[in-house]
Amino acid sequence: MPALSQVRVEKKETIQIVQAVEVKAFKSKNGVFFLGDCLKAMQQLADDSITLAFTSPPYHNAINYEEHVEKLQGKKARWERKEVSYTEYRDFLIDRFRELLRITKPGGYNVVNIAPVGWNGTRVALPFHFVSWMESIGWKFCEDIIWEKPIAKDRRSGVLLQHPYPGYYYPSLVSEYVFVFQKAAEKENKENIYWHRSKEEKERNRIDLKDYQGEMSKNVWKIRPVAPQENIHPCAFPVELASRVIKFYSYKDDIVVDIFAGSGQTLLAAEMQGRKFIGMDTQKEYVDYALEKIKNIEGQQKLTD
Fold first, then answer.
1. Assigned fold of 4-304
2. Cβ atoms < 10 Å from Cβ of 22
3. Which pTM does this prediction carry?
């Protein structure tokens, strides 16, 4: 029998963890980072135990994370894409988001950053297929937010400059989707995350609205992407993106999970905003990197206490 342990995360929440052979747990002050397949990691968590999930799934056929890590280690000069069938990719995601549904509290949220992908000259409408997959396993679709990146990473729009004729228009890709899903509750009046909160807890989580009437009140968020030199992960999303999601869809001391945590941007945002966190990733280099960043934030918070 695996041994049962607990990660203390203050009085309000305790993350229950069963240590398993396939999954290693690295504890931090306010949470835990699992090294291993997120499906196996989630199987160690209790039903209805987290309030919010925010993640960006691995891009289909875009990144070979194992080889990317080998490049970081100096074992490879470059990494190559690893082809995975679309059906296999779909089943991979459905299995994991179904398990995420189990561990999410009724009324809790699953927010996913996702974008269309290109492969063999074809642009695949992954986000729109993804919504259907999530609905098929029980997630309720709530909102679609567009993350607009002020800096374009490609030169697709240049095709029209070279060939100024109809049919040559390929706009530069400067946006991704942020889809908000929710787990239904048994009773309609409890299908939210605030019905049981005290007046004091609501006041403690009051959102500063000084900038709200501008960009944040709309479903297009303009946030600068992470530059390659700012993070070891090949496709890290900015902490600001995770911070907004956490601020709008959770309360302090709630547990936030990222099942594809990578370099820990969600966990870092959770730490900065007083939430508990659970991260999961298969690459130890990313886990070590994330834990070091979180440790630095914890140190800075101690200095200001």
1. Rossmann fold (3.40.50)
2. 13
3. 0.85
